Amino acid sequence: MKFYKSLILFVAISFSIISCRVVKLDPIEILTFEQKLEQLFPDAEITKIDVKDHFTKAFQLILNEPLDHNNYDAGTFKHYVYLSHTDVKKPMVLITEGYSANPSTYELSKIFKGNQLQVEYRFYGKSRPDSIQWKYLKNDQAIEDYHQLVTKLKSLYKGKWISTGISKGGETVLIYKSKYPYDVDVAVPYVAPLIDTQEDIRTQIHINSIGSDECRAKITKFQRQVLENRDEVLTEISSYAGEKNMSFNELSTEEALEYAVLEFPFSFWQWGGNCEEIPGENATASELFNYVNSIVGISFYNDETYYDLLPSYYQHMTELGYYGFDTTPVKDLLKVVHKPTNLRFAPKNIDLTLNQNYIKKVRDYVENQGNKILYIYGEYDTWGACAPNPKPHINALKMILKKGSHKTRINHFSNEDKQLIYNKLQNWLGYSVTIYPLEN
């Protein structure tokens, strides 16, 4: 009996000793934010960049983006993305640029003081391959760029997502919303057109009706005055081009001048021209050139810009639509451009047939199903003529700034209208999101 008691005591003591033994656990690896990014994008080049405003970290990501999301064997291109970080729990503002991207803090990012993801559009800026394969420059491919990127980053950023963009970038916001309605919580397109044809007549109707009769007459008189002083203005252009090291091989300076004159009414209303500033009948050639240059920009037609904007014109001619030119006011003064068209600035020897159903489907979606979209427009902006009009049953808000231009932003509205905007955003995003009113 003593033996068994001793055995039981031994076993109990042994079990007690074993149970008190320290078990060595593997260390828990705590990743830095940058390491988490590297895990999400193992093939990307990730570098730190300067931090601005309220952000605490900022990175440039160069992604190996598929040329074709339906066929990865087609290859990749270098796609530039800029991520500005403050807190993974705070809202993320996704900026779908329409063209190239230069890191900057957008208005909505200041309103939410959250995070910002700025994405260069494929085949623009630094994201442009040496040789563009035009068949891959399609909106659906670009939308898939955003969708894949957002899907990955949502594993880090758990807060609300807001998409925004300006002009063509705003149009991209609407296209993205129509394709992936639930990728973001709220969409805020600025001055975004949805254009019907390669030469949408609504822009010309707008030009012929906006402002006063006196102002429109003054615009026509100015157009004629520039062409009536053609030789002297061409001398001014040549001098200016020499100073700025511009070359005009794709378009001659004479063709550039005529296109600038035809473009003038569109740009005047688009950018908020002031009728009082239009030069009078005694203006010198220098004054005439300086003013048309300030509104249209003769650099728009030089070789460098021509090359930079080839992707834009390709997209406008094949999927997005664009606008035409009215020669009526100056037809008798034109010597070079007798049948003006924006096809002149598109890539050559390639099919430029417009898919008219593409934007039609986008318009149908946003007008009839596009909830939680905040539209920002300027009344005088020529592109506002092509703005969508959400149906009354849609939970959307369209704000039009009286006499506003293509430069219209939320901060340009009255305090009362800004509060209306903030309230709508708050309602859509919930009260867990803090809104910081913009400073006047």
Question: Could you give the topology of this structure?
Answer:
Elements: H1 2-19, H2 33-40, E1 45-48, E2 57-66, E3 76-85, E4 92-96, H3 107-112, E5 115-119, H4 139-153, E6 161-166, H5 168-179, E7 186-190, H6 201-207, H7 213-228, H8 230-243, H9 253-270, H10 285-295, H11 303-308, H12 310-320, H13 356-368, E8 374-378, E9 397-401, H14 415-429
Parallel strand pairs: 4-5, 4-6, 6-7, 8-9
Antiparallel strand pairs: 1-2, 2-3, 3-5
Summarize the structure.
This protein folds into two domains: 33-190 and 409-429, Rossmann fold; 201-345, no CATH class.
What can you see in these coordinates?
With 440 residues, the protein is α/β, with parallel strands linked by helices. The chain has 2 domains: 33-190 and 409-429, Alpha/Beta hydrolase fold, catalytic domain (Rossmann fold, 3-Layer(aba) Sandwich); 201-345, no CATH class. Helix content is 39%, strand content 12%. It is built from 14 helices and 9 strands. The strands form 2 sheets. A 7-stranded mixed sheet has the order 1-2-3-5-4-6-7, with helices on both faces. Strand 6 (161-166), helix 5 (168-179) and strand 7 (186-190) form a beta-alpha-beta unit. Helix 4 packs across helix 5. The longest helix is centred in the N-terminal third of the chain and has 18 residues, at 2-19. Mean pLDDT is 94; it is low at 1-20.
Task: Supply the key terms.
two-stranded parallel sheet; 14 helices; 440 residues; alpha/beta; Rossmann fold; 7-stranded mixed beta sheet; disordered N terminus; 2 domains; 9 strands; globular
